[in-house]
């Protein structure tokens, strides 16, 4: 199998794992961020508790998240099937594509805490505890990906991708709800590394044509 075929296979595997991990994302939204939940107090002395919708009410969220991941997958597949015009450009674009699911996860989880009515949101930041640590790890991973993308030597780009992949794995251990986004991002980074091997280790300069 060619490197291009391997890259496509890796992307598809990452997407399958992403869809399978979307349940952890819904658990994060429901149990930790209390998305689509109501806060009720039974009396003056009752500290109150959240009552959340059943699982069917979260189908729309799952469809939206996975739909966005389908779009990202199609973009990545388009990059993998394209013919690189510049040495390293294809792998760079694929690595940058890995940022998209991370950005989607960050936006979705932040947005999930912003639309709760005031009477359903006690004076507690429900985003801070479950998401601040994993957001920090993901931000570092994104910085590494961007830094690797502007490096010229292919070996340094490969090292940057490996470091970013390690950080993404750490993010899953910090917050299991990030698995859906991380799986797709890991697939894109792994595909970028495979596509990098299609290129020579050094960019050949155009040969000069003798005159006369």
In words, what does this structure look like?
Residues 199-212 have low confidence and may be disordered. Strands 1-2 form a two-stranded antiparallel sheet. It has one domain (3-41, 50-196). β1 (37-40) and β2 form a beta hairpin. The protein starts with a helix and ends in a 16-residue tail after the last helix. The protein has 212 residues and is mostly helical. The protein has eight helices and two strands; from the N terminus they run ααββαααααα. The radius of gyration is 21 Å and the shape is elongated.
In short:
The chain has 212 residues and is mainly alpha-helical.
Report the sheet with the most strands, covering strand number, pairing sense and barrel closure.
2 strands, antiparallel
Assign a percent range to the helix content: 55-70%
What is the residue-averaged pLDDT? 83
Strand order of the largest sheet: 1-2
Q: Provide the succession of SSEs.
A: HHEEHHHHHH
The secondary structure category is: mainly alpha
Total count of helical runs of at least 4 residues = 8
Q: Between the first and last Cα atoms, what is the distance in angstroms?
A: 45 Å
Poorly predicted tracts of residues: 199-212
Overall geometric form:
elongated
Calculate Rg over CA atoms: 21 Å
Overall strand count: 2
* Portion in beta strands: under 5%
For the record, the count of structural domains works out to: 1
């Amino acid at each position: 199998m060619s490197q291009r075929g391997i890259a496509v296979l890796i992307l598809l595997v990452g997407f399958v794992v992403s869809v399978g991990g979307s349940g952890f994302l819904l658990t994060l939204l429901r149990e930790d961020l209390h998305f689509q939940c109501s806060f009720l107090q039974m009396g003056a002395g009752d500290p109150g508790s959240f009552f959340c919708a059943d699982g069917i009410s979260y189908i729309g969220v799952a469809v939206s998240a996975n739909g966005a991941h389908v779009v990202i997958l199609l973009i990545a597949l388009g990059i993998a099937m394209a013919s690189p015009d510049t040495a390293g450009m294809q792998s760079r674009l694929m690595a940058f594509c890995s940022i998209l699911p991370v950005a989607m996860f960050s936006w979705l989880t932040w947005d999930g805490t912003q639309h709760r009515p005031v009477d359903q949101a006690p004076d507690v930041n429900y985003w801070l505890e479950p998401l601040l640590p994993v957001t920090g790890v993901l931000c570092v991973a994104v910085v590494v990906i961007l830094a690797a993308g502007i490096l010229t030597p292919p070996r340094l780009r490969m090292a940057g991708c490996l470091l970013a992949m390690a950080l993404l794995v750490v993010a899953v251990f910090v917050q299991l709800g990030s698995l859906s986004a991380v799986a797709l991002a890991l697939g894109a980074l792994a595909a970028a590394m495979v596509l990098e091997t299609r290129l020579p280790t050094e960019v050949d300069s155009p040969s000069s044509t003798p005159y006369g």
